[in-house]
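Hello Y.,

Per our agreement to keep a running log of every chain we model this quarter, I'm adding this entry. I've kept the format consistent with earlier entries: sequence first, then predicted structure.
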Amino acid sequence: MNSIVASPGSQSSLREANRARIVDAVKYHGGLTQVELAGVTGLSPATVSNIVKELSSSGLLHTAPTSRSGRRALHVTLAHGVGLVVGLQISDTRMRLVLADLGHQVIAERSMPLARDHRCDSELERAGVLVADMVDSVGASFADVLAIGVGLPAPIDPRSGTIVTPGLLRGWHGIPIRDELGARFNRPIFLDNEANLGALAEFRMGAARGARQAAYIRVSYGIGAGLIIEGQIFRGSSGKAGEIGHMTIDEHGSICRCGNRGCLETVIGAAALIELFRASHGELKLRDIVLQAEAGDASCRRVIADAGRHLGIAAAGLCNLVDPDRIVVGGELAEAGETLLAPLRHALERSTLWTAGGIPDVVQSDLGDKAEVMGAALAAIDAVRIASSIA
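Predicted structure for the entry above:
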């Protein structure tokens, strides 16, 4: 019987996949012993040991002796240069954090669910605990953290560091958030709308690379857009630019949390879509609708396609105003892919002012649910570099 011998290509691919598995585990947990790495990755201790030695030699991983339960072990973290930044995103339902170095390398990350009506004081307290834990997990000290970037699901006044519009994030309006964070962390704080930060990340390292004018539309529990004009985030005079979720779609529609009637968010925001399924499917989450659509549920596919059409009509107004050459769609609903994007493009074709170049490219986010938190880290890195150049 002939034996089957794996080709060098397949062995190389397997080794590369194992490397990626180890690096991802270290990023997620911040730091692990080699024994713990074997446990969380499912790889053999020998494989872990060999790959850790290889990646340590190349400068990607850092190892240091430690003691666990009285036994000597080797603690593995990502190597990082001098100086770290924190990216923090507090969305409607989740808090995400990343710890990165000035070379954009993510060293560690954390994520935790939030209650829908979370409040500023309690979430900032949790953020402080998570940041301290994340820094400690990589063997660094808080003295290594140079700046913190923060994204919130509401327009931010760039001068005062407060939320511009009441009602969009209950429990946070009227609070000097940037000052509160600065007092808690004693570090420079960069605060912005999460959609703006998602746009920044996609423009620098994602699906909007190479575009001079781009729009990043985040479709999740809320709807928002970040605008890139001539390579820079455009925020408007008070920070409200890009609030596509509060464009009026139906002047006789439902009352929106912003106080207006018939906003896009009341039609395709998560709360509106979930309500459509309450009688037939019971209590769903937005991700459940996407997953059931992918599994072939006709009603879920129809609802997502209708959402794409409504989003396309609103995006057409945006295109006629700022004329982007690329639209990147992110957020949880964007995980539906072409089920959402195809009707969006069709609506754009019907409603956008015609030009010889056709409609803008419409693409799915490259960075997925990490776009906004990576944008927060990039903004913090920018703040550090600007401060260094001034000094």
